[in-house]
Protein 1
Amino acid sequence: MPDNGAFLWDWFWELRQAQPPGFSGPVPISNGELAFWCQLTGNIIRREEVATMRAMDARFCFEFEKECEVIKVREASA
């Protein structure tokens, strides 16, 4: 992450920590949760930053699900 975008990484993990897990893995961050987080923290997020955060969240959810599948296969073959 470039230095000038490091705050997005911090914001992403702040939002992720507040996100409850779903039954089949992480639940994507909703618009409502993002708006509430902005109100709660006083952070002002630009449209481009929202798009970046959405991409980060989508990739996080994808990679988490992929890792869960690897674990299931490993446990099934053990």
Protein 2
Amino acid sequence: MGSIGIPGLILILIIALVIFGPKKLPEIGNAFGRTLQEFKKGTKELTDSFEDQSKK
């Protein structure tokens, strides 16, 4: 995501604002945050299980 830059992020936010409207953006942001949190939790559990298997 580092290659997008500030102008690219601003453009994406403007497009999202036009498509979804200002009332839906916080809901979408919350859903994205929860999804990212669950993904991180799942990958951590997966790596922990691989580490446990390799120790046995």
Protein 3
Amino acid sequence: MSVLQDERIALLSGRLDALPDLAQRKLDLLPSLLSATHDAATIARIDQALRRNARLLAAARDGIAAARDRLTAVKAVRDGLDVYGADGSRTSILRRNDMLERKA
């Protein structure tokens, strides 16, 4: 169970770089988990921890995808911008390289 707790802590703290090692630790523990006899309460706790971590992993994945999409959108606007006129025609406004960029 400690590997699942370590995984939970890594996910909650944003330490995604720790996940490959934790995944290997889980794989290493799998044979002993399958060969041992566990009571229903232990199996229920492991199942609950696995499901909780799966939700955290999905949230981390979704957060990374949202950040990637946002960075792509910002880059697209920085490189140029497409606007539409009253008649529906599209015009591209390209960013000039000699323009100053304001930073907050």
Protein 4
Amino acid sequence: MSDAKAHEPRAEKGTSRTNPVTFLRQVIAELRKVVWPTQKQLVTYFIVVMVFVVVMMTLVSLMDLGFGRLVFWAFTGGTN
């Protein structure tokens, strides 16, 4: 969890901004807290995402084909 201080509103309207060096130090400190996935987890996540994308592409493509044929049939009077 973050410090409660980070979420407190600023006391004054004219307070100074964080300088770039402090900002970069804070970014690096936050990146050190990240739990990075292992290579096995990364490969597993990649495969899961790719399978999901392929399934969704297939579903959308079939729906597009079906609706296209339905609209074509409706506007041509049911003849090919």
